Structure to design on (650 residues):
């Protein structure tokens, strides 16, 4: 078993990332293909099977080299059955039997989990989690996703909706509307989209001035990156936006930690690339809202695997299954 | 093994509850003794050993009838070592080796967990949880405690502080001071003490009137039970207090559910005896703040074991250990 490879797949709406990974979590080969959503999404599993066979041929390897295929999918998953309850953007009907289809197409044992859960596992195994058995991973991207690991296992929840950290209600009254139908969700504040929204509110005020305002005046738009860059330069308006975002993110993470007391909370996704200008401010608020014993023992850290977290975590599903068989 | 008894102990600051429980979770005998905190708490484990021996003699049973002793203790516990990090009111020094002392005194294998965790396990095994593998139990008493079960196991957290649900920050700015040193904790709102505090704020207003106000005028104090009784009778002031409490409790529970998507959230403790007048109002707020998929699958329920939850859950620690050995 030790010399076999795991296949890790991170399925996204536009791109499918794949990797051959050894039993020690080291990526041997990685590549990506476009995700083809046409034909009710039926091509997705076929294309994955084809690209794996092609890659094996390129490398002069047999199919027997592969121990199995783990996949992170963008939607709530029934881990036991490998059914994806619903996935937007992929063309699939509800309750799509993804594991079964992947197994018949690839002739490999398959396991499916939610993509945010796979990222959390990846960070636990090879990233900032450093093997921590109690870990929460929060992905700050266009939206806000999350994965919760307790006692070394992903928490799926009764209907696969555990880890919906982006939909923690942070502003109970009068918050911005969220795609989920609620208002005031963390995602409306701490995602790239949310940060830009809050910045725009400030930029539209009459007395708005400074670096970020100049960027806005020149381009008629700003990005989350612009906000963090300006904050790093001491721009008052950008710092105000950063404070608002960090307050709500620090509060939500502290309350998660008060409930779970994880060893680490890992921040990943595009927004987390802001680095310490964000992390330091979030920590200040986390410390304010965390129970004293939790504050002392739960640490916040930036993700270290970047885009590889998903494929590494997906591969772990097979490694973990193999080790208990 | 099937005919053996488990000893369940629920250690409180003033009373120690004990029970002999069979392998099916049925209480065979239960009794209680006062908790003797003198002598730096050294008498506690001695008295437990003595009362168990006396009870066996009363019943004409041998020590070999007992499979082991599980105990819930009021403080953060290292489950693996059975050390209680710190316990107020018991007289013990920090990092007290409770499991080891209990084992030498009783000559029985012992396991220790936090008392709120034991209550959660009790409700999972024999109470409102009905065997749910993903369960959160919230105890609303003088304070607010909690236990989190994920994938069938208690979540301890890295320093035993998981389940500190009472210290979720619900009012980020300007909340009431909490015993933990923070402000605005859920415990300052949804505990019996918190409910009375909020009621007093309303009762001191000039225009206060109605049933609850009359009770206050007659006794110069009100209880949480008075508030719920008056709310049940439609008293406007009491309903206002109930709304405030339910808003924050519903919000906190929804955010826990957005993170963990448990099958059930069970409300126990003295305050939960208010029953549906509280539960219905909490549900309204829970539904408002829960992610749609979570709202559909996570249900709120009242605890059913009352004061027996702790001893039953403590006994389960031994049953569970026995079954995996």
């Amino acid at each position: 078993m030790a010399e076999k490879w795991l296949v890790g797949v991170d399925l996204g709406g536009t791109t499918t990332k794949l990797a051959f990974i050894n039993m020690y979590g080291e990526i041997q080969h990685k590549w990506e293909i476009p995700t083809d959503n046409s034909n009710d999404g039926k091509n997705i599993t076929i294309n994955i099977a084809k690209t794996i066979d092609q890659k094996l041929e390129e490398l002069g390897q047999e199919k027997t080299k592969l121990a199995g295929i783990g996949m992170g999918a963008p939607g709530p998953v029934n881990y036991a059955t490998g059914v994806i309850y619903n996935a937007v953007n992929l063309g699939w009907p509800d309750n799509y039997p993804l594991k079964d289809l992947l197994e018949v197409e690839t002739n490999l044992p398959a396991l499916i989990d939610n993509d945010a859960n796979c990222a959390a596992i990846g960070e636990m195994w090879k990233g900032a989690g450093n093997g921590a058995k109690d870990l929460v991973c929060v992905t700050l991207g266009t939206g806000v996703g999350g994965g919760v690991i307790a006692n070394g296992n992903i928490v799926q929840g009764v209907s696969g909706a555990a880890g919906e950290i982006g939909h923690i209600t942070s502003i109970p009254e009068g918050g911005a509307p969220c795609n989920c139908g609620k208002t005031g969700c963390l995602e409306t504040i701490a995602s790239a989209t949310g940060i830009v929204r809050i910045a725009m509110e400030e930029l539209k005020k009459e007395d708005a001035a400074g670096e970020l305002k100049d960027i806005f005046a020149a381009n008629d738009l700003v990005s989350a990156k612009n906000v963090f860059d300006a904050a790093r330069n001491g721009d008052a308006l950008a710092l105000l936006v950063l404070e608002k975002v960090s307050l709500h993110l620090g509060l939500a993470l502290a309350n998660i930690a008060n409930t779970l007391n994880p060893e680490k909370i890992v921040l990943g996704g595009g927004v987390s690339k802001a680095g310490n200008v964000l992390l330091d401010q979030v920590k200040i608020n986390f410390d304010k809202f965390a129970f004293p014993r939790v504050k002392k023992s739960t640490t916040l850290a930036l993700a270290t695997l970047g885009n590889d977290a998903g494929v590494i975590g997906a591969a772990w599903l097979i490694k973990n299954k193999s080790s208990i068989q």
